[in-house]
């Protein structure tokens, strides 16, 4: 039986709550996964009451779910959720919240979700601690902390110090929503439940690995946050390094949170540190200029509203990393992310070594292609193995074909990452949340790059919106024939050289 719980959302009128958290909680309710007594307290600064919140959330849910919105579930969901008005910087908010959570008929297990500005995390946790709202006398208290956890290594350490004055590590749920995505979790099953893959998953057979997250959207209304962050902090330090750990880790002894996280930390610790003098050889940054997306003209980053004149914040970042252990020594792992790129795509691409050519010498098949394993995270979540086969006909010609090992059948729906993670908090399962040492070691990886970039501000190379980023980024590749992979389709010869 699942615990009853009060979910308190700080920042409940903001973007994340509107587009992710409230719809995810609604979906959990619709699927019957919340206990009957579970309640949600939406807190915000706006001068709303519960009636106004209900009207707003009806709109949010119908924007997001359209015809999937069920009126009877909606009515039940509204009964679960109430509004608490409070300004986080006003001292009077906290005793009032204490009274609200204690007087109303609310479950005594409480999960606090920090959907607020990172600068406010420690203030809110200290305030909750001060009024006794983190004491676990009559039920558990858990705190979900959104990314970014810190702005660099030093600030992550200070944040950790500040919050552990009030919380034990078991109460802290540092969220990285990528770990809630279906294919991402499937990486472990794919690797560790298939005997035929494990023997190949190492430097003897794998030539290089690419992890790409590209978006066609720009910075939108988030310039205030994004301009102080940039692509390296926003995506690589968190989501992309997490993907890297899952691809590269050793099999954990068990699937429990600690064994899993121990193995992930080992990978992060084994990443070869980037010396300040080697930053340019290992990292690349750029910024989008105006261009076209889906036939529409879009502005460049510097013309977006809220972006300061002359900003040198990168909207595209790429990195070459090496895991210095027995399994991966010498195998480059390329990470890349960008806004306003040609397509929205998150893809892990594993490129295998060239087969020996001798056997085919003198035939039309002498230029053999490499095998790839492609783990598509979005928009398609799928797993494909790209192989070489003979073309029908008299000649010895080959072509690439793709074996599809996708785990979702047509009638099986996709579960949003936030649904999974919000439920894990109620269940006390921290496997898909980050332990502090993971965060710390991820900062250690990117810190030298961030510092070097801050010391050499720019101007940055520009790439036209709607493209795959600057050609010059190819300089990170170890070999001239390596190129960015951004399609799930088998690549044919006509595309060679035009992929960057
Ligand atoms: C967030 C970043 O963590 O992840 C955003 O702050 C980014 O900038 C987003 O757009 C991408 O998430 P998803 O789930 O849309 O791929």
Verbal overview:
- The protein is an alpha/beta fold.
- It folds into two domains: 6-146, 3-Layer(aba) Sandwich (Rossmann fold); 181-413 and 435-476, Dihydrodipicolinate Reductase, domain 2, CATH 3.30.360.
- The chain is 31% helix and 20% strand.
- It has helices at residues 15-30, 50-65, 71-80, 93-103, 121-130, 153-163, 182-192, 223-226, 230-248, 257-270, 279-282, 417-427, 436-455, and strands at residues 6-10, 39-44, 81-85, 110-114, 141-145, 172-175, 206-214, 283-289, 291-293, 296-298, 316-322, 332-338, 345-352, 372-378, 382-390, 398-404, 433-434, 462-464.
- A nine-stranded mixed sheet has the order 16-15-14-13-7-12-11-8-18. Strands 3-2-1-4-5-6-17 form a seven-stranded mixed sheet, sandwiched between helices. Strands 9-10 form a two-stranded antiparallel ribbon.
- A hairpin with a 3-residue loop joins β14 (372-378) and β15 (382-390).
- The relative contact order is 0.13.
- The structure holds 6-O-phosphono-beta-D-glucopyranose.
- Residues 147, 215, 234, 346 line the site of 6-O-phosphono-beta-D-glucopyranose.
């Amino acid at each position: 039986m699942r615990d009853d719980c009060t979910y308190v959302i700080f920042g409940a009128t903001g973007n994340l709550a509107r587009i992710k958290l409230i719809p995810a909680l609604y979906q959990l309710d619709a699927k019957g996964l919340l206990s009957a007594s579970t309640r949600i307290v939406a807190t915000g600064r706006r001068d709303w009451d519960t009636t106004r919140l209900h009207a707003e959330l009806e709109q949010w849910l119908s924007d997001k779910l359209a015809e999937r919105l069920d009126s009877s579930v909606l009515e039940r969901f509204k009964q679960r959720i109430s509004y608490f008005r409070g300004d986080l910087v006003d001292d009077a908010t906290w005793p009032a919240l204490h009274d609200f959570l204690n007087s109303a008929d609310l479950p005594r297990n409480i999960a606090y979700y920090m959907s607020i500005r990172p600068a406010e995390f420690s203030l809110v946790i200290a305030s909750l601690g001060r009024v006794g709202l983190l004491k676990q006398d009559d039920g558990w208290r858990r705190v979900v902390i959104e990314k970014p956890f810190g702005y660099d290594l030093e600030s992550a350490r200070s944040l950790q110090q500040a919050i552990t004055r009030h919380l034990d590590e078991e109460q802290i749920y540092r969220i990285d929503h990528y770990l809630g995505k279906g294919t991402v979790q499937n990486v472990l099953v794919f690797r560790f439940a298939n005997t035929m893959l494990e023997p190949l998953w190492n430097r003897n057979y794998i030539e290089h690995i690419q992890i790409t997250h590209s978006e066609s959207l720009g910075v939108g209304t988030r310039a205030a946050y994004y301009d102080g962050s940039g692509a390296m902090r926003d995506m690589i330090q968190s989501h992309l390094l997490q993907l890297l750990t899952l691809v590269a880790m050793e099999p954990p002894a068990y699937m429990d949170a600690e064994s899993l996280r121990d193995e992930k930390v080992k990978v992060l610790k084994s990443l070869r540190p980037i010396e300040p003098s080697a930053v340019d050889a290992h990292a690349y940054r750029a910024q989008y200029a105006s261009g076209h997306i889906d036939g529409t003209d879009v502005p460049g980053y510097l013309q977006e509203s809220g972006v300061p004149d002359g900003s040198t914040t990168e909207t595209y970042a790429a990195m070459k990393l090496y895991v210095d252990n027995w399994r991966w020594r010498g195998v480059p792992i390329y990470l890349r992310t960008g806004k306003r790129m040609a397509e929205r795509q998150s893809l892990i691409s594993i490129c295998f070594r060239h087969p020996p050519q001798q056997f085919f010498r003198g035939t039309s098949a002498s230029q053999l292609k490499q095998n790839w394993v492609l783990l598509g995270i979005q928009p398609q979540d799928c797993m494909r193995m790209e192989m070489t086969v003979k073309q029908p006909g008299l000649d010895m010609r080959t072509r690439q074909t793709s074996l599809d090992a996708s785990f979702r059948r047509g009638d099986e729906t996709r579960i949003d990452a936030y649904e999974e993670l919000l439920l894990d908090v109620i269940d006390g399962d921290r496997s898909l949340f980050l332990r502090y040492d993971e965060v710390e070691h991820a900062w250690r990886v990117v810190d030298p790059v961030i510092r070097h970039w801050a010391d050499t501000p720019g101007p940055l190379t520009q790439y036209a919106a709607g493209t795959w980023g600057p050609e010059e980024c190819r300089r990170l590749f170890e070999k001239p024939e390596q190129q960015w992979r951004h399609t799930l389709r088998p690549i044919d010869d006509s595309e060679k050289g035009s992929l960057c």
